[in-house]
Design goal:
Layout: E1 2-5, E2 12-16, E3 197-199, E4 202-203
Antiparallel strand pairs: 1-2, 3-4
Length: 208
């Protein structure tokens, strides 16, 4: 039996009659503020659950269903989210520093103001995701799908965007791309780079 407790009060939020949370059905539960740090939640169903403010530092969430989950303000630093479904998730203000999000589905997710510095987003699907003001410095976004993504004012300094798809009107206005690797990136079909910093001290000026 596993007791999921609140990270601060120690109050029991939910009890699972199993020896592991891998593959567990936790969909729709209120687990706000839960302490799930370092736990194995691989393949678990957490869709539509409330995990706002939860501690998931170093947790294994690979292949988990986190669609439409509320992770606002949660700590997911160094967590394994590879191949996870995070479509339309609310992750605003979350800490994902150093997290593994390779090949994860983040389409339509709210990642505004999120700390993704040093995170692995290689091959991730971020179509129409909201990354406004996010910290993606040093992140690996190689071969990521960012079609129509909102990256205005995001920090992409030293990020690896090689082979990334930024077409379809991706918004990079006022983003910091200094030192970023944009080799073989697709910026066609209306990508917005107005005011973006490509070289320190130099900004793109939108054509009239």
């Amino acid at each position: 039996m596993i007791e999921i407790k609140h990270r601060e009060t120690g109050a029991i939020l939910h009890t699972v009659n199993a020896e592991t949370l891998s593959g567990a059905d936790l969909s729709g539960l209120d687990l706000s503020g839960a302490d799930l740090s370092g736990l194995d939640l691989s393949g678990a169903d957490l869709s539509r659950a409330d995990l706002s403010g939860a501690n998931l530092r170093g947790a294994n969430l690979s292949g988990a269903d986190l669609s439409r989950v509320n992770l606002s303000g949660a700590d997911l630093s160094c967590a394994n989210l590879s191949g996870a479904d995070l479509s339309f998730a609310n992750m605003s203000g979350a800490n994902l520093r150093g997290a593994d999000l390779s090949f994860a589905d983040l389409s339509g997710a709210d990642l505004s103001g999120v700390n993704l510095s040093g995170a692995d987003l290689s091959g991730a699907y971020l179509s129409s995701a909201n990354l406004r003001g996010a910290n993606l410095s040093g992140a690996d976004l190689s071969r990521a799908n960012l079609i129509g993504a909102y990256l205005s004012s995001a920090d992409l300094s030293r990020a690896n965007l090689s082979g990334a798809n930024l077409s379809g009107g991706a918004d990079l206005s006022h983003a910091d791309l200094s030192g970023a690797d944009l080799s073989f990136a697709d910026l066609s079909d209306g990508a917005n780079l107005s005011g973006a910093v490509i070289i320190p001290g130099w900004k793109m000026i939108k054509e009239a």
